[in-house]
């Protein structure tokens, strides 16, 4: 239709829209006039009035059909038709409440699972920072090292140079997670906070509701600006919402800080996984970070940062400029920056918080919930197909009295829309209830639960609406498709059914069941692979003992201990701990393996090893005390452990691992050789076994250890090898600490096995979620199979009765029905195996020493699927055996 035709028909369309009754009456009057004119012409030809009327009606056709055709030709009233279809659809659903509740429940589960996962993706990956402006232009900033795939931290001087030179960025700011105690003694409270650049609050568009943010000069100096902005939650809970809080003092790590502001409600900081309770300026870094003053040390890499791009600038463009800045810094400062660059990451891949950690799990969950939705839709489609066959007579009558097939399809699609809309509404309620459920699957640390909220915003609502429309098409098109080939004459005749039903009508139902079984089988196989992987990763040896070693710590910094006093306390405490009953050994270490703390790293030089011009070897290391290797059960292959004589007055020494020996000394024993560490030369005194340092999934990497006294920190972890229970050793340690200083409080005490378990919590989340959703998919597939077999048995009563009359016993009928269900299951398993072998490769990031094609996992999924299929078929099969042949044949 061209524009002139459309403009010509516009008044008519408006009349049809706003005056539908008048338009219908005009159609009826026009048809009546046409009929009367035809009758008059027939009478004029010599027919009797009765014959003339009969002939005119026969020539014209059914009046109702003609009226409907005229409405369709003129466009009809879309709104009125839709409202009529809605009323009729609700009446039809209310007449079958059992069917309606089951169908809506399936869609609620399918759509709810999708909306829940989308809320997690939105709240953790895409828009993780409530109240922060322009998150769509925010990217993470971190360092890179040549030859390494992951991200590293940046130094403060490098960050300042980048901030001055970057022209494609609106803002660059630092946000480094840290911790503190807000009080000491028995009531010590651990708080999490951030060390930030002075422009932090202005850069993210968050303004304190009381007081102010930081000023530019508060970035400068060594512990020169002890000021703090506290969170709304801390202000409300600890300070009782004191309106005069600004200007008051709060001790953080035993240093009095002036409270200068209160962040707004709903702002939790810029770190995925933990809600921040306070923010301090970068000038206070030394008070919260071990290792000395770092703001002027270009080799000290400790900060985590973000960049907000200018409008219209892509991350690729900004990365080009940032890389050029990194190369310029490498050329200007080769001693500290050789082989180093700067990278940008989207928020959902942020390398220094839990976004990157949970990304593989959430990627898998998006695929899993899509499978669950398809299974739910297939289940509802099967229910609607069965119901459409029961309504064949109704559809036939409606066609016979003038309804068009398109009109019937619209009606069936409207009924599907009602179901999917109710399912979407219920699904959003489920998503709202479950939006915080992810944190329940992750362990608390030091008694504090993680903060991983889902975000149900307009994007999640729009996604749910899109899923609702897709579900409408899926569940509505199946019964609508059946009306295409509806035979008006044959549909009114009695039909006979076999145990499998009429082949043409049963094929689609069976196909949907095969699809459900296929998808469920894939999910079960994936869940079995993840479960096997989790078991292996948690039982694998990390290279150190886990069951007999516990770790804790004492906050000496928070208690105001200076370095000499801290050294004396550590010596006294370790002597007391070693003589406790059941204690075999004890040792301090700055970082606990697989913990959240980050290891120190330093450029190194090795006697006899010539690095390339492009390479600046940088290796992670740990500061440990005497007996550390004996305490953790790490073998020392050659040389010796550290002793108390390896202190600040002794020559520098180091212990290296075997991978470092292989890379830098060609596998030769390096004991007695020299290693340059932080500008000084250390003598290698031992070679230790490789172990896991940051992740159970990491491969062997160079690593070395230095004595704690030669690189001292006031807040190391205390590792204890003991035969005592965790409760007993904890009580004994508290007594010894309080005997030295009653103002001190212990950190959380856990076994190293619990540390391993916490480090593998993303795998546990994946196993839990896939198991829950896989179980849901299995239940839906079982319900679908049960529905198909129940309907087949109900429609095959005459055939079953005839079989029993001819001598078939109950066992034969039982075997007949169950074998039909198992054939459908076998078809789904066959397709699922083929698809699963390809799709389980996507689990590679979460699998540990498990092949994606592991036969044990697929065999376990097959066993569960078979048991479910037999259980789903038993009740219909039992009903088949209860058929009374005499009554069936008589009916």
Structure description:
There is one protein chain. The chain is built from 28 helices and 23 strands. The chain is an alpha+beta fold and 891 residues long. Strands 1, 3, 4, 5, 6, 7, 8, 9, 11 and 12 form a ten-stranded mixed β-sheet that branches. Helix 6 packs antiparallel against helix 16 (458-482) and helix 15 packs antiparallel against helix 16. The longest helix is centred in the middle third of the chain and has 37 residues, at 354-390.
Features:
23 strands, 10-stranded mixed beta sheet, alpha+beta, 6-stranded mixed beta barrel, elongated, 28 helices, 891 residues
Summarize the structure.
With 891 residues, the chain is of the alpha+beta class. It contains 28 helices and 23 strands. The model is unreliable at 494-502 (pLDDT under 50).
Helix-strand layout with pairing:
Layout: H1 3-18, H2 20-44, H3 49-60, H4 63-74, H5 78-95, H6 97-126, E1 138-145, E2 154-155, H7 156-165, E3 169-181, E4 190-196, H8 200-204, E5 210-211, E6 227-230, H9 232-237, E7 249-252, E8 255-262, E9 278-281, H10 285-288, E10 301-303, E11 305-309, H11 315-332, H12 334-337, E12 340-346, H13 354-390, H14 392-400, H15 405-434, H16 458-482, H17 488-491, H18 503-539, E13 549-553, H19 563-578, E14 583-589, E15 600-606, E16 618-624, H20 628-632, E17 636-639, E18 653-657, H21 658-664, E19 674-677, E20 680-688, E21 703-707, E22 717-722, H22 726-740, E23 750-751, H23 752-759, H24 761-795, H25 797-805, H26 810-839, H27 855-881, H28 885-890
Number of strands: 23
CA distance, first residue to last residue? 58 Å
Shape: elongated
Strand content: 5-15%
> Residue-averaged pLDDT, rounded?
81
Unreliable sequence segments? 494-502
Which structural category fits the helices and strands? alpha+beta
How much helical structure, as a percent, in the residues? Answer: 40-55%
* Main sheet overview: 10 strands, mixed
Number of helical elements: 28
Radius of gyration: 37 Å
């Amino acid at each position: 239709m061209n524009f002139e035709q459309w403009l010509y028909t516009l008044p008519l369309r408006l009349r049809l829209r706003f005056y539908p009754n008048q338009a219908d009456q005009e159609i009826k009057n026009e048809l009546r006039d046409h009929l009367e004119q035809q009758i008059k012409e027939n009478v004029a030809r010599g027919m009797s009035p009765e014959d003339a009327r009969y002939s005119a009606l026969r020539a014209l056709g059914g009046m109702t059909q003609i009226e409907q055709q005229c409405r369709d030709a003129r466009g009809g009233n879309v709104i009125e038709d839709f409202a009529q279809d809605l009323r009729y659809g609700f009446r039809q659903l209310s007449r079958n409440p059992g069917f309606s509740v089951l169908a809506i429940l399936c869609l609620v589960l399918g759509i709810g699972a999708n909306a829940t996962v989308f809320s997690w993706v939105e709240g953790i990956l895409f828009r993780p920072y409530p109240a922060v402006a322009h998150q769509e232009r925010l990217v993470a900033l971190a360092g890179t090292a040549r030859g390494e795939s992951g991200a590293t931290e940046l130094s403060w001087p490098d960050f300042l140079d980048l901030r001055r030179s970057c022209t494609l960025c609106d803002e660059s700011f630092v946000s480094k997670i840290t911790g503190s105690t807000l009080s000491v003694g028995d009531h010590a409270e651990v708080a999490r906070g951030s060390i930030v650049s002075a422009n932090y609050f202005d850069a993210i568009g968050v303004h304190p509701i009381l007081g102010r943010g930081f000023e530019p000069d508060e970035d400068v100096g060594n512990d020169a600006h002890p000021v703090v902005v506290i969170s709304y939650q801390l202000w409300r809970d600890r300070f009782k919402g004191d309106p005069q809080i600004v200007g008051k003092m709060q001790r953080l790590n035993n240093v009095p800080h002036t409270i200068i502001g209160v962040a707004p409600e709903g702002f939790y900081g810029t770190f995925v996984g933990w809600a921040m309770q306070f923010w301090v300026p970068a000038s206070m870094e030394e008070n919260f970070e071990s290792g000395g003053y770092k703001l002027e040390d270009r080799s000290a890499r400790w900060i985590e940062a973000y960049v907000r791009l200018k409008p219209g600038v892509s991350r690729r463009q900004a990365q080009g400029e940032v890389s050029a800045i990194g190369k310029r810094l490498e050329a200007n400062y080769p001693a500290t920056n050789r082989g180093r660059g700067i990278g940008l990451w989207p928020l959902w891949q942020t390398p220094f918080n839990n976004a990157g950690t949970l990304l593989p799990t959430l990627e898998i969950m998006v695929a899993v919930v899509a499978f669950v939705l398809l299974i739910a839709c297939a289940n509802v489609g099967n229910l609607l197909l069965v119901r459409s066959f029961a309504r064949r007579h109704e559809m036939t009558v409606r066609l016979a009295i003038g309804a068009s097939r398109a009109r019937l399809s619209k009606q069936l699609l409207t009924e599907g829309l009602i179901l999917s809309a109710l399912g979407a509404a219920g699904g959003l309620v489920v998503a709202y209830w479950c939006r915080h459920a992810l944190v329940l699957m992750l362990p608390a640390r030091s008694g504090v639960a993680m903060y991983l909220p889902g975000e149900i915003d307009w994007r999640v609502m729009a996604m749910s609406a899109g899923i609702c429309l897709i579900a409408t098409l899926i569940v509505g098109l199946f019964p609508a498709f059946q009306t295409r080939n509806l035979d008006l004459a044959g549909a009114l005749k009695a039909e006979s059914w076999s145990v499998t039903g009429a082949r043409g009508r049963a094929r689609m139902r069976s196909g949907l069941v095969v699809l459900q079984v296929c998808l469920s089988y894939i999910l079960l196989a994936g869940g079995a692979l993840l479960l096997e992987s989790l078991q292996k990763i948690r039982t694998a040896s990390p290279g150190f003992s886990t069951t007999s070693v516990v770790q804790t710590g004492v906050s000496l910094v928070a208690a105001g201990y200076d370095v000499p006093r801290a050294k004396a306390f550590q010596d006294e405490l370790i002597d007391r701990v070693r003589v406790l009953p059941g204690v075999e050994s004890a040792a301090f270490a700055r970082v606990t393996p697989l913990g959240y703390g980050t290891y120190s790293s330093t450029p190194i030089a090795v006697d006899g090893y010539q690095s390339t011009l492009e390479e600046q070897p940088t290796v992670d290391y740990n500061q440990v005390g005497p007996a550390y290797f004996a305490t953790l059960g790490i073998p020392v292959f050659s040389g010796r452990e550290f002793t108390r004589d390896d202190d600040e007055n002794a020559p520098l020494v180091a212990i290296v691992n075997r991978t470092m020996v292989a890379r830098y000394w060609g596998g030769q024993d390096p004991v007695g050789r020299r290693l340059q560490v932080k500008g000084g030369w250390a003598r290698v005194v031992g070679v230790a076994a490789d172990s896991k340092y940051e992740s159970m999934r990491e491969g062997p990497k160079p690593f070395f250890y230095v004595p704690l006294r030669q690189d001292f920190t006031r807040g190391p972890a205390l590792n204890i090898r003991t035969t005592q229970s965790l409760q007993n050793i904890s009580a004994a340690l508290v007594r010894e600490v309080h005997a030295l200083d009653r103002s001190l409080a212990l950190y959380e005490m856990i076994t190293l096995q619990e540390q391993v378990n916490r480090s593998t919590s993303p795998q546990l989340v994946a196993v839990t979620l896939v198991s829950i959703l896989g179980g849901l998919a299995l239940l839906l597939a079982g319900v679908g199979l049960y529905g198909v077999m129940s309907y087949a048995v109900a429609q095959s009563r005459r055939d079953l009765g005839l079989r029993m009359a001819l001598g078939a016993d109950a066992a034969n009928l039982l075997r007949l029905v169950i074998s039909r269900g198992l054939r459908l299951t076998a078809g789904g398993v066959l397709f699922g195996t083929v698809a699963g072998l390809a799709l389980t490769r996507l689990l590679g990031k979460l699998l540990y020493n498990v092949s994606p094609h592991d036969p044990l996992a697929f065999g376990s999924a097959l066993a569960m699927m078979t048991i479910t299929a037999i259980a789903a078929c038993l009740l219909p099969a039992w009903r088949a055996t209860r058929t009374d042949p005499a009554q069936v044949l008589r009916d």
